[in-house]
Amino acid sequence: MPLKAFRGPKVWLWRWRRNPLRRRADVVEAWVVLGAFLLTVLSGVLAGLAAAGAVEHGLARERSLRRPTVARVVTPLPAKPAAREDRAPAGERVWTEVRWTAVDGSSHTGRIRVRSGSAPGTPVTVWTDPRGRLVDRPTSASEAALRATLIGLLIGVSAAAVPCVAGLAVRGRLERRRMREWDTEWARLGPQWGRMV
Q1: Looking at the DSSP assignment, which residues form a beta bridge with residue 99?
Q2: Membrane-spanning residues where (predicted)?
Q3: For residue 181, what are the CA distances in angstroms to 16, 175, 176, 178, 192?
Q4: Residue 155's Cα: distance from chain center in Å?
Q5: Contact status, residue 95 vs residue 74, Cβ threshold 8 Å
Q6: Is 179 helix (H, G, I), strand (E, B) or coil?
Q7: At what angle do helices 24-65 and 141-196 cross, to 10 degrees?
Q8: What whole-number distance in Å separates Cα of residue 162 and Cα of residue 168?
Q9: Cα–Cα distance between 7 and 162 in angstroms, integer?
Q10: What gap in Å lies between CA 115 and CA 125, rounded to an integer?
Q11: Calpha distance 147→52 (Å, rounded)
């Protein structure tokens, strides 16, 4: 409570008000802080929204181009039992060769992971691009929204950090300059202070 008595009441926007003690550096610092704040918010929001929109659009385009296709297992999986320690547990997936027919009628083969114990001719679902090549399963709409949000946040924070750090650096430099000016004036006026009393 005593500290508040020495500091006095907080006055908003004091750097823009007319005051004989206000210096040019105070006004410059006020504009630097305001500009850095506005640039930080604007760049963060705009960069984040742009990145999230681009990711969302790209994943939606990927979903529209990839399609599920039924393929058949070609390569028989090893039939001989392995050693008890090496035996694959039930439900484990193993690599094998599969064959499918593309939309244009051409036949393709590729390697995918299927459930162990799948016999030749077993149907499996694969994802293909417009040319009939194997691709990964596309992200769902909810996965795409989550990924776009996370990437948008990361890009937005990164973009906002640039003007924020620049504004802090300029403000720190102005503060050091103001302190040097105060030291210079105190060195000039300090000795006269004692004579007045």
Answers
A1: 72, 109
A2: 27-55, 144-170
A3: 20, 10, 9, 5, 17
A4: 4
A5: no
A6: helix
A7: 170
A8: 10
A9: 33
A10: 12
A11: 8
Give CA–CA dist 44/171, Å, rounded. 20
CA-CA distance, 115 to 109, in Å (whole number)? Answer: 18
Determine the Cα–Cα distance for residues 124 and 134; give it in Å rounded to an integer.
Answer: 13
Q: Which of 150, 93, 147 is nearest to 122 (CA)?
A: 93
- Which of 107, 113, 140 is closest to 125 using CA atoms? 113
Residue 78: predicted pLDDT: 61
pLDDT at 80: 44
31-67 in b/e burial notation, b at 16+ Cβ within 10 A?
A: ebbeebeebbeebbeebbeebbeebbeebeeeeeebe
Q: Is the pLDDT of residue 85 over 60?
A: no
What's CA 55's distance to the chain center, in Å? 11
Q: Give me 120's structure tokens.
A: 């030749």
Record the tokens describing residue 5, joined without a space: 């008595």
Q: What's this model's pTM, rounded to 2 decimal places?
A: 0.67
pLDDT in tens, 103-119: 888 889 999 888 887 88
Mean pLDDT of 87-107: 80
